[in-house]
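Limitations
The structure tokens in this dataset are predictions for the assembled complex, not deposited experimental models. Users should treat interface geometry with appropriate caution, especially where small molecules or nucleic acid strands are included. An illustrative entry is reproduced here so readers can see what is and is not provided.
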Amino acid sequence: MSKIRTPLILVNFKTYSEATGRKAVELAKTAEKISLETEACIALAPQFVDIASIASTVSVPVFAQHIDPITPGSFTGHILPESIRETGAVGTLINHSERRLKLADIDATITRARESDLLSVVCANNATVSAAAAALKPNMIAVEPPELIGTGIPVSKAKPEVVSGTVDLVKRMNPDVVILCGAGITRGEDVAAALRLGTEGVLVASGVVKAKDPYKVLLEFAESITKP
Amino acid sequence: MSKIRTPLILVNFKTYSEATGRKAVELAKTAEKISLETEACIALAPQFVDIASIASTVSVPVFAQHIDPITPGSFTGHILPESIRETGAVGTLINHSERRLKLADIDATITRARESDLLSVVCANNATVSAAAAALKPNMIAVEPPELIGTGIPVSKAKPEVVSGTVDLVKRMNPDVVILCGAGITRGEDVAAALRLGTEGVLVASGVVKAKDPYKVLLEFAESITKP
Amino acid sequence: MSKIRTPLILVNFKTYSEATGRKAVELAKTAEKISLETEACIALAPQFVDIASIASTVSVPVFAQHIDPITPGSFTGHILPESIRETGAVGTLINHSERRLKLADIDATITRARESDLLSVVCANNATVSAAAAALKPNMIAVEPPELIGTGIPVSKAKPEVVSGTVDLVKRMNPDVVILCGAGITRGEDVAAALRLGTEGVLVASGVVKAKDPYKVLLEFAESITKP
Amino acid sequence: MSKIRTPLILVNFKTYSEATGRKAVELAKTAEKISLETEACIALAPQFVDIASIASTVSVPVFAQHIDPITPGSFTGHILPESIRETGAVGTLINHSERRLKLADIDATITRARESDLLSVVCANNATVSAAAAALKPNMIAVEPPELIGTGIPVSKAKPEVVSGTVDLVKRMNPDVVILCGAGITRGEDVAAALRLGTEGVLVASGVVKAKDPYKVLLEFAESITKP
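Predicted assembly:
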């Protein structure tokens, strides 16, 4: 977990054209620049095919967007945790709202992540589900009300009770879990609000990737956690 | 479709540890060597994360093991056809028995492959399903009885009627579709038998990847199609 | 197939509250009344739990909304074809747009329906997918553009080319398949238009179930096929 | 929850031919007879289509094998909680190993069960997953190691630590949850062992349904909890 510090800004590249292939590497360089300038910990979750080129180009930590709960074998079209690790990623999202998993598979996936030396960030849609996820002992939980994702309406302002409720429930069950929040975050003050609610970072996507000027937005995010 | 010629040997790397990361690149070099020596067309379907390194290292055509029927956007953890193309692949498996898709999604995925300049190879479990797949106008169909996959019992010998029945049904519906067969193929004579049954190639996996000497097996396959 | 005649009006009860439990039986009685009055063939597809009470109360043919491609055994929460038949249904929808299946499972489900003496009605979203479904030899195909379902914009008027294109493609492949169309049908003239395009019936849902006066709408449908 | 008392014997009929249609009603009568004779609480989970006939024939409580997290509407082929309740069931299994659900859907399904006045019994494959399920506040949790289901090797003897570990973890999180265990239970002493490990009942299936003499086996189970 050496490269990861909190507060953490984790940028999910999804399958946006602005963050695919060469553009993904460019965005990764922008994130690295800001990370070096501000000393904020910025991590990136690009598409599977772009992990290798990003991890070999920049120094910021790279996450997968998903792994499957499999061991090496006959699993055509699936994501082997060991292959993600070998490619240079240090962690993985699990159960993102766009890639929900069965409960038993989340448990097995967290185990496979640990065995493959990958940090696990389990996404959850509310405080109750976050508490359930915490029982499975991942490294981090990212609470994201799906109805706010991509809206520009920040969870930390529109639904602060979801965030603080998650912090309460999760910390009571498992004080070691790092809690992030996400959905609708587009400004530095949204990030600051998230930290004030007890989280240790944010999971962001379109707010950065689809911004007119990603450098400016990500710099604002970084400064909001380093110059609070 | 420039780089692809028939008869075709398409090697699925699945998520075998023998074909992950650096080992995947090594196996790709072996395939390239044989391809250059024999002039057989050998294509490779590695894991997503290994496509870039293989496509930039060897001259043999590379396929993805799966793509999702999506356009750029909010699809965390999914496989964007355009990103596969940009990474250097020329085609993709669709609906492998270990990654079955819904019918409407196979239709949409073939369309997305075409739009992204990727060859589509739809896998099917029997002659009837192959005929259904042919109605969707993919570039190729690979018929594989799931119960023979990984057994070493070659479909071309154990179930020749499945192969010839597929050729009959598919060619009647759509004479332009290239037909491959797979499952249990481990020897050159299995490949030759497949061609005699009317196919234009084979889809292989463990027979090559998990062989004691992949070079020897793949050379035997290549010679069986170039020195019939 | 004794009780089923074409032209056919097949009413999908979905999980509408207006067609659940006692209300489902009431709606079935309404359909039976119209069927007896007009001699139109009206079939009903209620929820699983309501099949028994409807099939034992009315004389109109009953369909399931879905079955699973399973044989008796350990399949908790699944739909066994034999149990549907024993309950009094004569057929089943397969692959409705709200319950899409994998291609290989549609093939297996059609086989299981046949073995269980159930008529198979495979739903498809466009002409190409209908052609693929026809290769699997179901009894009927119902083409429904998903974007029109529940809109009140009738497929037979908004997308006549989808309906006639389906008729063309499917009949060329398999002239024995009965073709229905659905989506947005709310008036008798929509039904008549569907028949003029070459179909032998319609698959309807909200247009009847959620109508202010289901009797009136269904009577209009029935008369449009019996007094053309 | 009036009709349900602990210790509870919950018999899952799965899709066994021995527990389908008329045979399901016969088996329900057998269970009712034993329940009346021994005063043991025996509940039954038949297939959806058989709920109505069983609930209207016998006095023992009936469960569904699954419900979907939906409200009334356009969900062809799905299981509406309200329809299950109206049919006479008092509860439902959720997330059985043969019908696993996504984590967010388990949360939503428990809520829908509560809103529909149905008891929720969430199945889990190990102690950790049971703890996660407990965070979602169902009425009961049934822990069943999938590898023992249908084997005749009783979980209460082969893996007592899974059962006692589940009791420990779950009770610490949520002392109100009733804990059942299942898998491989075929004799009265297996049931007694389950209770000694801290559970309040068992979830059984083939051990009863596929027994040569279900009456004898179920009587043995019932006496093991009423004459301990």
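Some entries come with short summary sentences. For this one: The first strand of chain A starts at residue 8 and ends at 12.
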